Amino acid sequence: MESIRNIVVLTGAGISAESGIDTFRDAGGLWEQHRVEDVATPEGFARDPQLVQRFYDARREAVQQVEPNPAHDALALLDRQWEGELLIVTQNVDDLHERAGASRVLHMHGELLSALCSACEARHKWSEPLLGQPACPGCGEQALRPDVVWFGEMPYEMDRIYAALRRADLFVSIGTSGAVYPAAGFVRDAREMGARTLELNLERSEGSYWFEESRQGRASKLVPEWVAEMLG
Ligand code: BJW
């Protein structure tokens, strides 16, 4: 693509599906075994912290057993070789972009391998279960929760994301259903600010009609093809 210098890539659960991590809204997705209100809201956590800690402990353990797939690898290659600005904004709480070698990554919905202390608000790298209420390494309180963004909470790094969207020449959305805001609104924001827009998804997403171009297929095929186009 000509005249593209600054790129924002938004990724969702679909990019990690072929690594073996369940998506949220597809058949067999995580929400089928648990109600959203029970496991992904501050109210659900207050009501039954053990259920929520168990849910995230299982996912934290599972994420350490999987590997990046060709879609993560292709984005990492783009990250290494693209000379203009690039920001990979992921809604995913796994670390597969980083493990594939990408460094320009921002986790707007938090990270499974991190714990947040509700008492002192410190964030700590964390790979162990939280169910046994371990003490916060910073303040000693037994107040650690998964460092993820639940419904009704403010996603991380919104200022940096909007600043990158303002500068973007191209916005690319990969493997996300476009059902959750504010991420679902980025395509409109990017267009209003003059960027070209491209969707790569297994099927047309809820917000598909906002994109100038939409390609359907598996991320492990579409993403390497698109990256090859970008790197010429
Ligand atoms: C493949 C594939 C393959 C499969 N290859 N593709 C009414 C209207 C508008 C908004 C609201 C409203 N009421 C409430 C809100 C706000 C609310 C919201 O959006 N609710 C909706 C339900 C409507 N949002 C919030 O509360 C957010 N905070 C907020 O808005 O704060 C105020 C604010 C205002 C303005 C600016 C800034 C802030 C917080 C949202 C937090 C979401 N948290 C979760 C859980 C994180 C922790 C965890 O992982 O457990 O984030 S929910 C869940 O959904 C998770 C995901 O990141 C997120 C998005 O899911 P994603 O990635 O799109 O997955 P799926 O499964 O939905 O889609 C997968 C796609 O991949 C599908 O399309 C497949 O086809 C495709 N696919 N295999 C390519 N191989």
TrEMBL record:
Subcellular localization: Cytoplasm
Binding site residues for Zn(2+): 117, 120, 136, 139
Pfam family name, one: SIR2
UniProt keywords, alphabetically: Cytoplasm, Metal-binding, NAD, Transferase, Zinc
Entry note: cofactor: Binds 1 zinc ion per subunit.
PROSITE patterns: SIRTUIN (PS50305)
Cofactor: Zn(2+)
Active-site residues from the entry: 109
Binding-site residues for substrate, renumbered to this chain: 56, 59
Binding site for NAD(+): 12-31, 91-94, 175-177, 201-203, 219
UniProt catalytic activity: N(6)-succinyl-L-lysyl-[protein] + NAD(+) + H2O = 2''-O-succinyl-ADP-D-ribose + nicotinamide + L-lysyl-[protein]; N(6)-acetyl-L-lysyl-[protein] + NAD(+) + H2O = 2''-O-acetyl-ADP-D-ribose + nicotinamide + L-lysyl-[protein]
Deacetylase sirtuin-type domain mapped to chain residues: 1-232
Function, as annotated: NAD-dependent lysine deacetylase and desuccinylase that specifically removes acetyl and succinyl groups on target proteins. Modulates the activities of several proteins which are inactive in their acylated form.
Domain comment (free text): 2 residues (Tyr-56 and Arg-59) present in a large hydrophobic pocket are probably involved in substrate specificity. They are important for desuccinylation activity, but dispensable for deacetylation activity.
Family: Belongs to the sirtuin family. Class III subfamily.
Name this polypeptide is given: NAD-dependent protein deacylase
Organism expressing this protein natively: Qipengyuania gelatinilytica
